[in-house]
Amino acid sequence: MTVAPPTRITEILRGFCALLICAVLLVGVPIGLYAVAGSPLPDHVPSWEQVTATLMRPDTGNRLFLSVVRLLGWSAWVVFTIATCTEAVGCLAGHTAPALPRPVRPAQQLARDLLAAITLIFSSATVLTTPASAATQVVTADTPPTDGPSTSPSRSPEWEPLLGDDTPPTPPPEQPAGRTQIVHRGDTLWSLARRAYGSGGRYTKIFAASRTIDQPPGVPALTDPDEISPGQRIRLPPARTNIEDPPPERGSHSERLPTSERHRSYDRPTHAPREGRGTPGNRPSEVPAPVVASPVENPPSTPVPTTARSGNPNNPGITLPSGSHIGIGLAAALSLAVAATRLHRRRQYRNSAQDAPADQPAPAPVAQARKAHLDRTYAAHDAPVPSDADLIALDRTTPPPDSITLGTRDNTTITLPFAGLTLGLTGDGAHAAARAITTELLAKAPRDRAELLIPQPDADTLFPGTALDGIPGLTLTPTCSTAIPELEAEIAHRAQLMEAADQPDLIALRATDPAEPLPTLLLTATVPDPTPGALQAVTHLGHRYGFGTLILGPAPTGTTLHLTEDSTVTRAEGPFADTLTGAHLFHLTSDDANAMLHTLRTAIGAPEPETSTAPPPTPRPATTRATTHSENASTETLTLAPTGQDQTRPIRLQVLGPVRLHTTDGPITTGVRRSARDLLAYLATEPRGITREQAITALWPDHQPDAATNAFNTAVANIRKTLRTATGVREPMYLIRTAGRYHLDPSYIDVDQQHLNTALTQARHADTDTARIDALKRIADLYTAEFAADLTYDWVENHREHLRRAVIEALTRLAQLLRHSHPEQALAALEQAITHDPYAEPLYQSIMKIETDLGRLDAARRTYQLLTLHLANIDTEPDDRTHKLLTDLPSQGR
Fold this sequence. Notes:
This protein is α/β, with parallel strands linked by helices and 894 residues long. It folds into four domains: 8-42 and 64-129, no CATH class; 318-602, Rossmann fold; 624-770, Arc Repressor Mutant, subunit A (Orthogonal Bundle); 791-891, Serine Threonine Protein Phosphatase 5, Tetratricopeptide repeat, CATH 1.25.40.
């Protein structure tokens, strides 16, 4: 029998009744107790003899009984008052109040229910006063909009008066209360929020909107976000409300979430709700995921100072110089691939004496996408830019992708669920859009998270001239007909696993057995006409077993999109037609896709050819000398830095670590523009100075000539003004222009990297081992952090890597010189080297050899274990030479 929901008037009356009951319990009860039984406080403290005598003699007048009743009555009132205050504070703060001890738990539950009912007075009254025009349709997969693109509300910034214009614009209509949904077995507020908004962190919004809903008879009220029951009713606030999630804490929350509820590292809350009753992590298979924009795919709108930027700064997509348009999700995955490639290179560390080949820079499209990701996600919000190792560590907890972000509409990303998706693409932009979808899936495929099944002819069409062997997650079949049995076999395998584990769907199965590889599957193919019946039967099972179908052509079932050359949807048919009509889909050129797939191959440690087929990266002008001829640069630094003035120079520029300026009184924390900070770092790498054109090319490559010139002049003026204000000395220029070249004034600015360069040069040119050892020891003390850790330019990363390798080589050389005379100091130098590069396997081999010579066999085993732990982050293990050092340990003498 269907129970009719209570009316708003009923909810208001119920709230007033709860308020009356609460007033009686908090105010009426103490008044009554005081009138009948008197004050709970005794006139005096009885002695032990009086207490003993009272308990031993008969209670003829029932005085003792009445006293106990009075004490219990006052105690109950105090407990209820404390519980009410606790719940009220939690309600006002917007979080669940802490649970009180079990004996007083019923009083807390009563107070919680009363306060929840009291809030009906305000929430229901607000709903009653909301005008009918405020209702706005919620765009979801199961409730598509009826007005097409015109129903998408735009986000207008908060109005501010400008120059006396004190007439505010017409305020936007109030947001609707949202839609109501029934909780199914296995649901959690986290999973419901992730499906509804793309971010599990918004579960608090659902709880706040749902705790006042009247539940059906026999169903408990929603009083704790950690405890939800099947049959409860919840309210989902509108998907397009302007809700801002707090930024995540780096490195603090990936371990706090259950495996089935982990999301992208920069989209997790610090405290996630526990799983609700039922099977952990289940998702009701009969409810399709809503079509909303994920905040992970739609970062705050900030202009990106890079060659990879969007024409509209509010557009969440990234436009590359080649014309490709990608999402931040693909850019983030490529950023991880670049990090993994570098760590694999570091593993095979070789010094210059071994003729180590120069590292190949990332292809231009990949480098541009990586910079856009780091800028938008970290640098633009003044958050620390993660290192390569940090990115890999975050990637280890990333779950399989359960949705795909197709593109944007009205500056909002459009996301569809992978499971059960059947999408057909036609028109001039179909192949470019399909190329972007499949490339993003392959970029997220490592660690058995996703798999692309594609016939060879379609792969040749989408990726012409691209070597597809060795790309993780890619399975090629001869034809579409041979791909269908592959899907059928996978479905049978997953069905057996679900039956054996007694789990209803793939999400629950992954939570039950995280070690079982169950990647998200996508079949991308051209379907013959007529469509094979086996394919139609398989696609209907996609929602339950976690796979989708991308058809290069019209989709016989599902949604078909007709795309223009720039991948704009002009017409759509199917379930998601209204959502996708007018959308601008992400798309990739074949050259950009080739470069990205090349990076995905090297990210798993595949050998890199000496001449890459990927497009060459954009060269860094003016810094080639600093990065490839460091010896000359260091010598020039010595000539520019006057001796004897290191302690008297009023300004210290720190470029090892975050770029910062310091005076003798402390760091300069205000006044320095971001562009000025970047220019200072660039000047620190060029002791001979730079021209204005070189600075513009390195720092403002995407600006128009006039705008770039103004940006450079503004940065120079900001440096001079800030330093004059900080030091109080106005005569110096600080940044000198000589013969058309700008350089830092060495008489007033001391750069920490200059001291490191000096030590490197002295170690290289030392005549004796003693002088060389002294210089090398100074290097170990001077290299405190990586170069410009908060900058993301290509030239910064090149110089950062060059400087790091130079220091590692110096520490290795120091260990070689000290190994026989001072083995303990040699060990310390090598241990410091692996703190700067924990993936360089030859360094661990050297440490194990010295520890073995010293008879420290247990320490050598621990060194091997430490290397194994680090290499596991990049899905590899120590090579045979290192393993042989371990197996030979028992035979070594102590």
